[in-house]
Give the backbone structure.
Amino acid sequence: GIQVEQSPPDLILQEGANSTLRCNFSDSVNNLQWFHQNPWGQLINLFYIPSGTKQNGRLSATTVATERYSLLYISSSQTTDSGVYFCAAHYGGSQGNLIFGKGTKLSVKP
Amino acid sequence: DAGVTQSPTHLIKTRGQQVTLRCSPKSGHDTVSWYQQALGQGPQFIFQYYEEEERQRGNFPDRFSGHQFPNYSSELNVNALLLGDSALYLCASSSTPNTEAFFGQGTRLTVV
């Protein structure tokens, strides 16, 4: 079946460090989203990025659809960046369910 | 502009009971999807509603059913609850079935 794989599964950083999270997908995607799940469980939209590069403050994302991967960059990390980061892909046709990866758990230490 | 809202936020039920969870989509959205997230896992797709019909379904048993109302709000019903149904249930809305999805804060269901 369709697979979305994220790496690394866990990441511990000191405040101020930079990081790169990776998402690989097993088939061509229509759309790809990155989310941050806060400690209360809410999924916060970070990027909607089927291809190309987008930036929002300290965060940026790049999706290379032809090579089936996406990267999320976090620069100058802050303790508030802690949480679980998910990528999720839409596949094919007009149907819109998202296939999620297992997430990357990020812990930023002061 | 209100985002996606879900109710209740927490719920405790006994094995064998039935439960109904509710979701109001983001303003301007007519598509609602439901996801189940077990502890330590990514969300799993349950089903999607569009134009008051179930358009797509994930790998969940018939105990899971839903409904979408004319105002686009939606309900998720789970019958004959099992301990394994304990999870965070997330509702997402989008402007069409295959566009950017926005999630509610979730309902945390505990089955005892």
